């Protein structure tokens, strides 16, 4: 199965991709968060700068990037790229 | 509450001081001032930040049941040097609970709330700040079930 998701880019990741958001179609689901990250890396190789210092947020829940981390996606789900936080 | 404009600290105290329980509430106020830079630009994943804040408040009420009111205002967008970017007020009839709750609120803000700031210098240099969230270090430790500890 695949899903069409809305990917949001924040902070450094928005600078690296030049985008605040984009629709990505045909994302396999379920998918490991590692594969999901790699899919975004393929679209935007400059995201490599954030490797190991980034997490994702799927439907507004944080998801660490890992091979064992399974994510299920539905159409119109939000996936956010979350660089290190710096609120406050 | 996310505010683009100046933060009303006196209003926060007033909001937190409403006295529905008949106790004398003590208001612990914490604010962060920017001293050394031209300013900061704040950005947030707003919907998620709202829901994460709701959870932080629920946790605070569970840990410190004497807490009466919790008010957090966080500015987004441009914040000039010497202006406050965050104001928090927590009221409780027990001063100790208020202090502990506000420390927890600050640390959870920094660790969990999807907000980012970048420093803007007068040299036109910008720099995204890092903080104490668990993925800001080059750590190889991954939580196997994928859930960052809440």
UniProtKB/TrEMBL annotation, chain A:
<dbReference type="InterPro" id="IPR044672">
    <property type="entry name" value="MOCS2A"/>
</dbReference>
<comment type="pathway">
    <text>Cofactor biosynthesis; molybdopterin biosynthesis.</text>
</comment>
<dbReference type="InterPro" id="IPR012675">
    <property type="entry name" value="Beta-grasp_dom_sf"/>
</dbReference>
<dbReference type="InterPro" id="IPR003749">
    <property type="entry name" value="ThiS/MoaD-like"/>
</dbReference>
<dbReference type="Pfam" id="PF02597">
    <property type="entry name" value="ThiS"/>
</dbReference>
<dbReference type="InterPro" id="IPR016155">
    <property type="entry name" value="Mopterin_synth/thiamin_S_b"/>
</dbReference>
<dbReference type="GO" id="GO:1990133">
    <property type="term" value="C:molybdopterin adenylyltransferase complex"/>
</dbReference>
<keyword id="KW-0501">Molybdenum cofactor biosynthesis</keyword>
<dbReference type="GO" id="GO:0006777">
    <property type="term" value="P:Mo-molybdopterin cofactor biosynthetic process"/>
</dbReference>
<protein>
    <recommendedName>
        <fullName>MOCS2A</fullName>
    </recommendedName>
</protein>
<keyword id="KW-0547">Nucleotide-binding</keyword>
<dbReference type="GO" id="GO:0000166">
    <property type="term" value="F:nucleotide binding"/>
</dbReference>
Automatic annotation (TrEMBL), chain B:
<dbReference type="Pfam" id="PF02391">
    <property type="entry name" value="MoaE"/>
</dbReference>
<protein>
    <recommendedName>
        <fullName>Molybdopterin synthase catalytic subunit</fullName>
    </recommendedName>
</protein>
<dbReference type="InterPro" id="IPR003448">
    <property type="entry name" value="Mopterin_biosynth_MoaE"/>
</dbReference>
<dbReference type="InterPro" id="IPR036563">
    <property type="entry name" value="MoaE_sf"/>
</dbReference>
<dbReference type="GO" id="GO:0006777">
    <property type="term" value="P:Mo-molybdopterin cofactor biosynthetic process"/>
</dbReference>
């Amino acid at each position: 199965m695949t899903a069409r998701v809305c990917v949001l880019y924040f902070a450094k990741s928005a600078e690296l991709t030049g985008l605040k958001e984009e629709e990505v179609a045909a994302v396999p689901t379920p998918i490991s968060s590692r594969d999901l990250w790699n899919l975004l890396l393929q679209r935007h190789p400059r995201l490599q700068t954030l490797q190991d210092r980034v997490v994702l947020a799927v439907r507004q829940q944080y998801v660490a990037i890992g091979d064992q981390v399974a994510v299920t996606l539905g159409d119109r789900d939000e996936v956010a790229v979350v660089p290190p936080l710096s609120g406050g | 509450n996310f505010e683009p404009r100046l933060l009303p600290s006196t209003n926060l105290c007033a909001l937190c001081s409403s006295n529905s329980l008949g106790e004398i509430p003590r208001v612990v106020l914490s604010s962060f001032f920017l001293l050394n830079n031209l300013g900061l630009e704040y950005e947030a994943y707003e919907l998620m930040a709202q829901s994460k804040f709701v959870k932080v408040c629920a946790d605070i009420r569970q840990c410190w049941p004497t807490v009466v009111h919790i008010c957090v205002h966080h500015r987004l967008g441009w914040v000039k040097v010497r202006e406050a970017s965050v104001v928090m007020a927590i009221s409780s009839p027990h001063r100790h609970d208020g202090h502990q709750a506000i420390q927890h609120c600050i640390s959870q803000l920094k660790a969990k709330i999807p907000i980012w700031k970048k420093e803007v210098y007068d040299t036109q240099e910008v720099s995204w700040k890092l903080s104490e969230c668990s993925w800001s270090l080059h750590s190889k430790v991954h939580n196997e079930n994928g859930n960052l500890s809440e």
